[in-house]
Amino acid sequence: METGTLTDRVYETIKQKILSGEFADGERLNLTELARQLNVSNSPLREAMSRLEKVGLVRVVPYRGPFVRSLSPLDVTEIFDVRIALETLAVRLV
Q: For 94, which DSSP code?
């Protein structure tokens, strides 16, 4: 049985596509095509895009739509610093 709302499932699907590289950095996300592929209406898709923007994976440009956010070298460095800290803590707790 699936859990979570439709928006949650759309959010997770798009997030995984971004993180796996299926959507390239800077790529414009076609909402009409995404809605068709995911077989959803525009409402859960827009809500998912809003969440993706809040976590920094998508940048919404007014009158142009959502784009996959490109990571700067500083962003990548910060991500790895956080990951190292979390993994070190996880090892200590085990």
A: -
